[in-house]
Amino acid sequence: MKKPNIVVLGAGYGGIMTTVKLQKSLGRNEANITLVNKNDYHYQTTWLHEVSAGTVHQDQARIAIKDVVNQHKVNFVQDTVVEIKPEENKVKLENGELDYDYLVIGLGFEPATFGIPGLEENAFMINDINSSRLIREHLDYNFAQYHNEKEKNPARLNIVVGGGGFTGIEYVGELANRVPELCKEYDIDKSQVRIINLEGAPTVLPGFDPELVEYAMNSLEARGVEFITGAILKESKPESVVYEKDGKLVEIPTLTTVWAAGVKANSIVEKSGFENNRGKVQVRDDMRAPEYDNVFVIGDCALIMNEESGRPFPPTAQIAIQQSATVAHNVAALAKGHSELESFEYKPLGTLASLGHNDGMGVVFGNKKLFGWKATFMKKMSDNRYLLKLGGIGLVLKKGKFNFFY
Amino acid sequence: MKKPNIVVLGAGYGGIMTTVKLQKSLGRNEANITLVNKNDYHYQTTWLHEVSAGTVHQDQARIAIKDVVNQHKVNFVQDTVVEIKPEENKVKLENGELDYDYLVIGLGFEPATFGIPGLEENAFMINDINSSRLIREHLDYNFAQYHNEKEKNPARLNIVVGGGGFTGIEYVGELANRVPELCKEYDIDKSQVRIINLEGAPTVLPGFDPELVEYAMNSLEARGVEFITGAILKESKPESVVYEKDGKLVEIPTLTTVWAAGVKANSIVEKSGFENNRGKVQVRDDMRAPEYDNVFVIGDCALIMNEESGRPFPPTAQIAIQQSATVAHNVAALAKGHSELESFEYKPLGTLASLGHNDGMGVVFGNKKLFGWKATFMKKMSDNRYLLKLGGIGLVLKKGKFNFFY
């Protein structure tokens, strides 16, 4: 009997956890497992706002794939996916092609710019390790440049973050911690620097409990963050950003606009012809694509409706990690010739937002609200728990967050 | 009797050492001493190649003026000199004016670009703390940008240093140490990076002993530095540099051209009408300007002929520090009403060049050649000796160089 080929595309939260689970549940004689990823590392997307601010180094936020994937059991291919051909059970890569019997698509997100002029050219995005450390260096560079110009340019010190959702808020929280350090490094008076958060909705963190939103805004405003709500970003220019509020256009001079207001599924999914809903595959209960019995979709490329609210579950690390249990179970079952598949059921474990490294807020255990250091502590514990699941205690010690109280 | 006003312009090597010596030799009832400087810190110009490479942090290379100048004895004015009016015994500052009875001009150097097109706009200069940390950040930024572009741009990884004199050679030496770190930080293959030194003369370090020059070139080439000698820089463009060699024009794509091939005296000296020789005041034996009995000139703004060679002594920290003893003695003598002034006599103590933090070469004790770690050790000891003279053992411990063997 021929061993089935299992191919996992992407080593994000969903892909890497599926791979790690499969290498435990399938013997070397039961299947060939191949993991494809652009980089030779997995990274913590939920820590990228810290990398982008320069408060966490990228090497803490990424994990070498060889450190968590057993190379005796899994074939790792470092390459970029160009197209999936589900009719032919093939994946086209930049430098080759792979055949599969079972496929797991975990190709993550792309930024969504909604056609706003100039965003793609002029704004920075918190996408991945490369783009995040670039933002960090861009901040440093502008602060360093400030005193080298006879005519001081305030645009160098105005940091505009588009989007007051989860990422935008967590990012301005890190900036509030980082800016005083940058000011010290480059001899700049802190009062010269502006951190501005633009949000289109009437309030930041739409959908969050109002008490939590108020806590976050107070904490961040006390540390110098300015919020402009009800502000629609109209254009990003090389040296400014334009928004509309109350029918009026306002221009802020800035060399640093960070766009954190929207993501969409990797466009390869749509390009490859999968039935999709705004680019995402609305998966069956067992996490398979509707049209293909051997193709699973996980994480940001998958869409699952929340029956209660009638809206899709948001694309989070938490849901991708939970989905990996179902996907890994079902792939292993099919590979072993079983036909009974599990259904995915989402168990919300709460949501915690950091507001810089020493403050935070959120909800855990269903409806318990947490504020301040308790929230930060729980969030760091949850980050460490993920590392434990992914690579054991060694990985927690190597990449975990232990700066609980300072 | 009216206390005389002593004004020292500039807190470089010459100015700060003169001030520190004056505060020891003159009582508070004997004179008013005022030190004027643009920044509230003194910096080690001879360490700026390290700050520019990112191998030494600017805070190690600078010293708060209040840490070495006694504020009970010296009035420190943080301001920029606009013009000296020696006929009126006045100094015009950006934010005020000072009267003096005795003046010490220690205003340092400016880069000399010899009218080469584009240099001022497009090249970086190792001038001061601001410009040096900007170069460091510029390198970081370009390395960070490299993987964010679909079309990889080699100009981001080509570093061109114009000038194979002392500063240029010391700078490429630091780069040879720094580039592997940058490659690691930004996931770049070291073989993609070029460090190119352009020198117009047939050899780098013209005037140095040929054995030392060969040692330096071998050491640096072994660490990846490319030397192009007999190459005249013709133009610096935003994305390239053009040089002429053997009658042919060659263009190197680069976003980083560092110009380290010439300095001139601060142009305020010439602008203020002093009799000068290419911008420098050819001082009398007692370090006074020829036309004014109450004006001393020190360091890079002063010109002293070497009788043996018939050429001026080069502008170095060593000579400025030695001059400060003569200047401080003579200013104090005049302030006390004496008329016997000392003559300056230069005692060459040797010349040591670093080639990165763990290699170096040079001459000490008249004609003893040193290579490798011995040269580095001696150079670091000499740096520490300066700190000892400036601010005592406390300053040595705070800002000294103790990484002798790694």
TrEMBL record, chains A, B:
Superkingdom per UniProt: Bacteria
SUPFAM superfamilies documented for this protein: FAD/NAD(P)-binding domain
One family name in Pfam for this protein: Pyr_redox_2
Gene3D superfamilies: 3.50.50.100
Keywords: FAD, Flavoprotein, Oxidoreductase
Gene Ontology MF term list: oxidoreductase activity
EC number: 1.6.5.-
Cofactor requirement: FAD
UniProt keyword Oxidoreductase, yes or no: yes
Residue intervals of the FAD/NAD(P)-binding domain: 5-323
Family: Belongs to the NADH dehydrogenase family.
Name of this protein: NAD(P)/FAD-dependent oxidoreductase
Protein species of origin: Ornithinibacillus xuwenensis
